[in-house]
Structures are given as C-alpha cells and as structure tokens.
Design brief:
This protein is α+β, with helices and mostly antiparallel strands. About 35% of the residues lie in helices and about 25% in strands. It has three domains: about 130 residues, no CATH class; about 150 residues, no CATH class; about 130 residues, no CATH class. It is rod-shaped, with a radius of gyration of 42 Å. The structure holds zinc ion. The site of zinc ion has 8 residues, from loops.
Length: about 450
Amino acid sequence: MSSLSISTLSELIKKLAPSQFNSIIIDNAVSLKRFDYCYLYAEVQRLEFRSDSITCAADRYLSQELMSLTERYDGGDYLRIDSGLVERMKSAPRVSGTGFFNGARRRMSELINGGRDVNLNKLQLETEGPRLAKQQPIFAVKAESGVTHCKLCNGSGTIQHTDKQGSVQQENCAACEGFGYVGTLTWFTTNVIEKQVEMVRCLSGEIANLKASVIVAHKGNDTTPKRMLTRFNGINVEEYDPDVKPYLDAMHDKVGNGNAVEDIFFCIVPCFTFSYRNVITGEIRTGVVVDPFRQPELLLNLEGGGRKFFSGVSNSMKHLSHFFGGLGQTVTYKDKQDLRRTIRLLIAVAVADGDVTEEEKKTLTLTIRNISNFTTDEQEELVALLGAADSGFLTDDDFTFHSLENRDEALARLQEMATADGTVHDAERDIIERLNFKQ
Ligand SMILES: [Zn+2]
C-alpha cells in the first residue's frame, strides 16, 4: 500500500489549487488518513422459472412422443423439448379427476420450488459467448411426465354399458376419449433476467460529505468485468480475490444469491484526508486528495462548519513559547532571531487595528519579559513597540525567517492574534498575507 507524505501532498495542492495554495497551511500534527474506497460494478444474469403441467387424453402419436421423451437418457432430470409438444398437449382433450396424475402439479412445484431447487448444472442452457442467451429452451421434468393406461377404461378406450333393453353396449371412454392412454407433461420455461448494479464502498469508514459520484469518476477506463461466478451447463466456478472478498460480499447483498453468472468489476480508489488551516479565516478544515497516484483530485472545505483552532491570546503565547523551546530555555541564535521577528509581527498585528486590547498588551508584555534570552534592552525595545500608532515599524527583515517551520508557526500565531476579536481587519490581513506569500 502506497502512502502519501505531507510534502507530496503540499506539491499536489500547489499544482491542483494554485490560487488556494497560499492561504493553506497543512496541519502537521494531524497525520494523513487513508481511506480505500472501492468502486464496484456488477452485471448479473439470473434465471427465473415458470412451471406448468397438463394431463390430457393421449392419442397414439402423443403417447409415443411422451413415451420416447421419458425414455431419453441424455438430459438427466430435465429434458429440452420444443414448444410444439406443449402446444399439442394444450390442444388435446383435458383429463381431470382421474387421480393418477393429480399430485403432479404439487410435486412439480416442490421439485422446482420457484427455481430454487433446480440444479442449474443439470440444465443445458443456450449460451452466447460466456453469457446466457436471452432465449432459452423449455424443459420437461422427467419424473413428472409420462403416459399411462386410462384408469377409467383400463386402457381399452371403451366402457361397457347395459341399456334398458338389457343388451350390452360399448361406449367410448369419456376420460381418454377412447384412446386408452392418458399423458402428463410437466415443464418449465426459463427467463434470463439481467441486472446491472453500481456501488461505492469503503470498509474503513466513510469520509464525511464525500459524494459517491466523486469516487465513480475515478473508476478508471478498464471497466471490463472480471468473471467471478458461473454456474450453469456443468460449470461451477466461483473465484474471488481474497483481498476484495469483503467488497464482493457487500455487492452480493445487493445483487442477491442464486445467480447463474456474475461479472464484477472493481477498482480501488485511495483517498487521503488531511487537516489544514485557512490562513485568512483562521479555520481548520478537512481536505481530501482523491486517487493521488493515478488521477489526483483535490477537495477542500469538505466540512461545512469549520472551527476556530485557538482559544485565546494567552494560550497562543504558551504555544509560541513551547515552539521556541520554552521561555527561559536556551534557543539557537537563528531561532532567537525568528522569535524576535514573530513578536514584532504579533505587536504589529495587535496595533494594526488601531486598538491594542488590555489582554493583548498584558499577554505580550508578559511574554516578552519572560524571554530570558533577550537582554533587558531587547525586551524594552519590544515592549515599547506596543505604543506604536500602526505597523509602520515593520521592515522586510521581519518577514524573512530562517526556517519555513518557524515562519509557519509565526503565521499560526498571527492568525490567532488577528482573529481573536472575531474579525480580521485589512491591516492585519495585509501583514499575514505578506508573511504567507514570502518565499
Ligand atoms: Zn379411458
């Protein structure tokens, strides 16, 4: 499994959203989270069965036809027949109530059970390439078809009858129409039902507000379905890649069991979520990189609300001191310079809106006094800046940090300072943007 580094992500954002890149700081503290989305597409063929049964008087031809049918050994339990036989059965005189084949319809429905009890491997179905053809033959159920002597006339075709004069008359048997034979044909027709199903699943939880259509757009060009299941004409193949088995199980819940053919295409679309700060609004948002290794797409502002990421100027100053090694601790010369730049910028933002609040003044003064690495003169110089009328004291050097890391930290603190009173003034924004765009 490939992973995505913060630096690669940063390059991707620069490439995919150049206009937004400058106002984004990726939150290093919240690591990228990978979500493997799976796009699945299934083409399924299943068989639907409709069964019927007719018992009729069978003349010599029909009797022979039914007899030769049940004597056939080629097709097993189900015999392919042509529709002509069904038509001949339908047009022959019906026999009912003979009791002999009465149970056929019931037994047949038990045998077929709406198709669930039909063994697909025992059917010789018509195919078109690797698929089932739309037109399928009619199948007779061998165990429930056949010919027998008529019970009423014992197969003679006639019934003796004594008239009023006492003479014996021969009459055609009413049940078998004088043929002496009764035939039963039990058959079913098969309908091929086709279904296409599309699905997007992620087993490791979903990314909030990420639309399935985004994943579908990354399904790739190779949408040739892979044969996963075939179950007819003696073929019984079920092949699943164990890695995608859980996804296929989810697909099976949708397409149902008992299919004859399943062609399933799947494509894994990796997505990475990250947390970022919007430099201008000071909000933390979630971004997603979809499909970074093939066809990267960037989604920003995924969460609707967003939240402020700081809780006050005092907390912000604590964060600043932790970042620069802690107040009173030894810091490197370069870090010390960057810390001085940061504080000058913070003071500039504080005075930029024309009004330094008591809290800002107190916190900044306290912070400056606590930095023992600064000489008293350096401290005095910084505290004095709190009385400045505006941010005019800043020079280009104040925006030139030794490290990007220090620059980002300064940016974050400026953000907090600027947004602490709820609104960002133009003068404050100017300072932030100037630092942010400084390369
Ligand atoms: Zn009869």
